[in-house]
């Protein structure tokens, strides 16, 4: 009886085994610069594996899948695992949340794991693998501010420069924190292409690229803070090892840099001598009030153009309004701005155009208008007054005395019903036209028949087009092959020559955008590309990868780079263009 029971238990041993699904980590405490390995293992074959979001970490490797199965002494064992390599993005206690998998129709989940992330730690290295330069001393992010104590609405500029040593190469960079300009009116200046230049940092020679340029106008006085820009940068650093050609071998490293927060001490505009009509204009300006004409007949109109031109906060104040007599009907202004914002600040012209229609015969004054601004050259208030304008109406009804009173708004003047048509001529003289009528001519009938004769041709062309459009799969394959050959063949031919390769790869990315988004190179800014691609249904991850690779081409041309990195950039470009081709509509 005992033997029978033992045989039954052995036979159903596989059924009695419990399903296990768990998460394992290589360590529970690590430095900010160390990598963490996470394995999700199961003892039965599962489907629909769903990893956690890995908040607070960046995936630098994986997922890689491993499956093993063995028989030992008649017992079978099965193991399946998914592995990830993670790099923490912040210090503190981070949580790896639950992963899920479906096994035999049931959902299994792992337990959450807490990871303690400390400050960066020094890692032991092989002496030959030690970098020749310290990454901490080789990369610096600087925010250069043109003026630290401006007046309210006085323009200042902040330029973010990334300095890096001649001995290292930058392969990729990401923005962790974007600068915030609270209590400032800000305008970013597009940088169409990153260009490496030579400069000095703390008296030493470095290369640098300008990442951002922003013009700021402080909107209130006091101490205003500019929150920092923070970057996560992947670099390649030469070591003491040499390849067969005697060249230094490169190792991958990572560096996080911040420009630091900046405090701007903004001075209020002086109260002494401030006119009552001051509307906030700061800069150096010219003011004019110009009528299109001053003599006109009844029923005609004129345009009064009130404009301010010069350099200053042109978008941040209002223009004065003209005062006209009630006998002049004035309509609401049409506002126009022709303003540019270079690094020196806003310049150009703003204007309000008023349409004025006289109602009565006579001569009417438009009172002088005053425009006041704070002059940044003398740090004093200046007032410009336009001359008085006289409008002469040659004919029409005569206005009563109260019709000449000033009109302080833009409401329309009412004319009495008995006089509004008094001076319109009601009689006319008709004369015959001896020209031959178009109706009934040969050209008339030809034009009538022509559309009907084109109908068969239109039907044939439409059917042909429908047949071509119907082959969606074939058209997509042809387009993919054509784009891949046209845009990437030149880069592939230059894969062994670093600088020509990155020049060709950058042109390939630009030509792809020209073909798909119908824009020119001069229009290719980071924000413009991102906006157009996302509007065409591309995913944000693919768009960001495209932008990062495009910006990286310029940096890689001037930095040391391995053949492996060049091959990886080529494969990355093929994958990104293929994904965009599938995603954008």
Describe the structure.
This protein is α+β, with helices and mostly antiparallel strands and 585 residues long. About 3% of the residues have low confidence. It has 10 helices and 32 strands. The protein is extended. It folds into 4 domains: 102 residues, Immunoglobulins (Immunoglobulin-like, Sandwich), CATH 2.60.40; 132 residues, no CATH class; 123 residues, Immunoglobulin-like; 116 residues, no CATH class. It starts with a helix and ends with a helix.
The averaged pLDDT comes out at 80
Structural category:
alpha+beta
* Total of DSSP H or I helical runs spanning 4+ residues: 10
Distance between the termini: 73 Å
Number of strands: 32
| Poorly predicted regions | 11-16, 408-417
- The helix content is 10-25%
Keywords: Membrane, Signal, Transmembrane, Transmembrane helix
Protein name: Protein BatD
Question: Would you kindly provide a brief summary of this structure?
Answer:
By secondary structure, the chain is α+β, with helices and mostly antiparallel strands.
Layout of strands and helices, then pairs:
Blueprint (H helix, E strand, L loop, with lengths): L1 H10 L1 H4 L4 E5 L3 E3 L4 E7 L4 E4 L6 E16 L2 E14 L3 E5 L3 E4 L2 E4 L3 E6 L16 H4 E7 L10 E9 L4 E9 L6 E5 L8 E5 L2 E15 L3 E5 L3 E13 L5 E11 L3 E5 L15 E10 L3 E2 L5 E11 L11 E2 L2 E3 L3 E7 L6 E12 L3 E5 L3 E6 L4 E6 L3 E5 L12 E2 L34 H12 L1 H16 L1 H22 L4 H20 L8 H10 L4 H18 L5 H21 L2
Parallel strand pairs: 2-10, 21-29, 22-31
Antiparallel strand pairs: 1-3, 3-6, 4-8, 5-6, 7-10, 8-9, 11-12, 12-16, 13-18, 14-16, 15-16, 17-20, 18-19, 21-23, 23-27, 24-32, 25-27, 26-27, 28-31, 29-30
Helix pairs in contact: 6-7, 6-10, 7-9, 7-10, 8-9, 9-10
Protein name: Protein BatD
Organism: Flavobacterium luteum
Keywords: Membrane, Signal, Transmembrane, Transmembrane helix
């Amino acid at each position: 009886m005992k033997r029978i029971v033992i045989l039954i238990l052995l036979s159903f041993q596989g059924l009695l085994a419990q399903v296990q699904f768990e998460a394992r980590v290589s360590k529970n405490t690590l430095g900010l610069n160390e990598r963490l390995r996470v394995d999700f293992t199961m003892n039965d074959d599962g489907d629909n594996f769903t990893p956690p979001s890995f908040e607070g970490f960046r995936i630098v490797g994986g997922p890689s899948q491993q499956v093993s199965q063995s028989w030992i002494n008649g017992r079978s064992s099965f193991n399946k695992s998914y592995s990830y390599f993670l790099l923490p993005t912040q210090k503190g206690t981070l949580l790896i949340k639950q992963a899920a998998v479906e096994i035999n129709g049931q959902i299994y989940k792992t337990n959450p794991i807490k990871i303690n992330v400390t400050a960066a730690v020094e890692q032991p290295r092989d002496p030959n693998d030690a970098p020749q330069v310290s990454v901490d001393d080789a990369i610096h992010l600087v925010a250069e501010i043109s003026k630290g104590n401006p007046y309210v609405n006085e323009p200042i500029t902040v330029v973010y420069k990334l300095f890096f040593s001649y001995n290292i190469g930058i392969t990729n960079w990401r923005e962790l924190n974007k600068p915030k300009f609270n209590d400032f009116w800000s305008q970013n200046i597009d940088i169409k292409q990153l260009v490496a230049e030579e400069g000095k940092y703390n008296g030493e020679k470095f290369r640098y690229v300008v990442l951002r340029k922003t013009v700021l106008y402080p909107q209130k006085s006091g101490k205003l803070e500019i929150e920092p820009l923070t970057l996560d940068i992947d670099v390649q650093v030469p070591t003491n090892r040499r390849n067969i050609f005697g060249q230094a071998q490169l190792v991958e490293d990572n560096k996080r840099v911040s420009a630091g927060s900046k405090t701007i001490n903004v001075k209020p505009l002086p109260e002494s001598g401030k006119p009552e009509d001051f509307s906030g204009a700061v800069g150096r300006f010219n003011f004019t009030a110009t009528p299109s004409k001053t003599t006109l007949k009844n029923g005609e109109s004129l345009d009064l153009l009130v404009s301010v031109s010069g350099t200053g906060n042109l978008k941040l104040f209002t223009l004065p309004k003209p005062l006209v007599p009630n006998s002049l009907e004035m309509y609401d202004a049409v506002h126009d701005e022709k303003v540019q914002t270079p690094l020196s600040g806003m310049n150009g012209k703003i204007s309000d155009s008023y349409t004025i229609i006289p109602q009565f015969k006579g001569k009417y004054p438009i009172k002088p208008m005053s425009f006041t601004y704070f002059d940044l050259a003398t740090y004093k208030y200046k007032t410009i007054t336009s001359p008085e304008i006289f409008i002469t109406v040659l004919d029409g009804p005569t206005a009563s005395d109260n019709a000449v009173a000033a009109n302080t708004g833009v409401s329309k003047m009412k004319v009495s019903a008995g006089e509004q048509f008094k001076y319109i001529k009601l009689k006319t003289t008709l004369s015959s036209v001896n020209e031959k009528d178009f109706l009934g001519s040969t050209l008339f009938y030809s034009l009538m028949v022509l559309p009907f004769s084109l109908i068969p041709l239109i039907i044939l062309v439409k059917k042909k087009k429908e047949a071509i459009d119907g082959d969606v799969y074939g058209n997509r394959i042809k387009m993919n092959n054509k784009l891949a050959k046209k845009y990437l063949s030149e880069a592939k031919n230059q894969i062994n020559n670093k600088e020509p390769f990155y020049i060709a790869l950058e042109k390939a990315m630009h030509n792809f955008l020209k073909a798909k988004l119908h824009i020119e190179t001069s229009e290719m800014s980071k924000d413009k590309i991102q906006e157009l691609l996302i509007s065409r249904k591309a995913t944000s991850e693919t768009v960001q990868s495209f932008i990062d690779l495009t910006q990286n081409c310029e940096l890689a041309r001037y930095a040391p780079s391995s053949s492996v990195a060049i091959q990886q950039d080529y494969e990355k470009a093929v994958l990104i263009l293929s994904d965009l081709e599938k995603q954008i509509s």
